[in-house]
Structures are given as C-alpha cells and as structure tokens.
Design brief:
This protein has 138 residues and is an alpha/beta fold. It is 42% helix and 19% strand. It is built from 7 helices and 5 strands; from the N terminus they run H-E-H-H-E-E-H-H-E-H-E-H. The strands form 2 sheets. Strands 1-4-5 form a 3-stranded parallel sheet, sandwiched between helices.
C-alpha cells in the first residue's frame, strides 16, 4: 500500500490481512517480543496452524512509514479483506484503514484469522471475494 501511494497504479488494489500501523500494533500488543526480536535478528510468528520467520529489519523499516498517511494518497478502488479474529493484526486498525482510503471496500470474514488460513471455508470466502472484485475490472 505504501508503494501504491507513491506510484501511478493499475486499475485496483487488493489488501489482505493488512497491518497499516505496525509501530502502534507492536507497541500496544507485542512490546514484549521486541527485545528478543532485536537480539535474535528474527522471530517466529506462529498461530498453531502456520508460521513464518520475520526479520527484525522488517520492524525497523515499518517504523519509517505511516500507513494511514500513505493510504490517503491511494486513488484507485481498493478491496480490503480481513478476518475479524486476526491474531497478528488488529481488526480496528483495518476498519480505520478502510475509512482513510479514498475508495475502499472492507469485506470482513466473520471468525477469520490472519490470512483466513485455519478454516477452509474462511479461506474460500476470502479467495472468492478477491476473485469477484478482480473480475469486475476485467
């Protein structure tokens, strides 16, 4: 999204399980992991069904940007798809982002986790929603 705010975009943008304000998220919800993350250079993010390693440089880069400020510059139609039980992002963050983006549609996957990966029905709903949005621009 930050890149999209700085360049001329194609017809649309799709954001899935987005954290627009990483700094506030980390400070409010995950402050406990930052010292370990810094020391080890990476941290495992896992919710029990999937996981990934996130480099500390990602956090440092994220601190440089204000996703909400960048969002105001995005001019193309934008679809935001997010589960309301996203354990890595905060749902209120996504709702705020949908209000800041000039031309956004927020689709909430009820009960969905980050990426809607735990429940096959949530994943299918996310994929279907994104596909239908994209087809409209075909």
């Amino acid at each position: 999204m930050i890149y999209a705010a700085e360049v001329e975009l194609p017809e649309f943008l799709v954001l899935k399980s987005t954290i627009a304000d990483y700094k506030t998220y980390q400070e409010r919800y995950r402050k406990d992991i930052i010292p370990e993350w810094r020391e080890n250079g990476e941290i495992d993010f896992c919710d029990g069904s999937y996981g990934f390693k996130l480099q500390y440089e990602f956090y440092l880069d994220a601190l440089k940007y204000d996703g909400f400020k960048s969002a105001k510059k995005v001019t193309c139609p934008t679809l935001i798809v997010n589960g309301d039980q996203d354990q890595l992002g905060t749902y209120d963050n996504v709702v705020k982002l949908s209000r800041v983006l000039p031309d956004a549609e927020l689709v909430t996957i009820e009960g969905g986790d980050h990426g809607c990966k735990k429940d096959p029905e949530h994943k299918e709903q996310m994929v279907r929603t994104i596909s239908e949005f994209m087809v409209a621009f075909d």
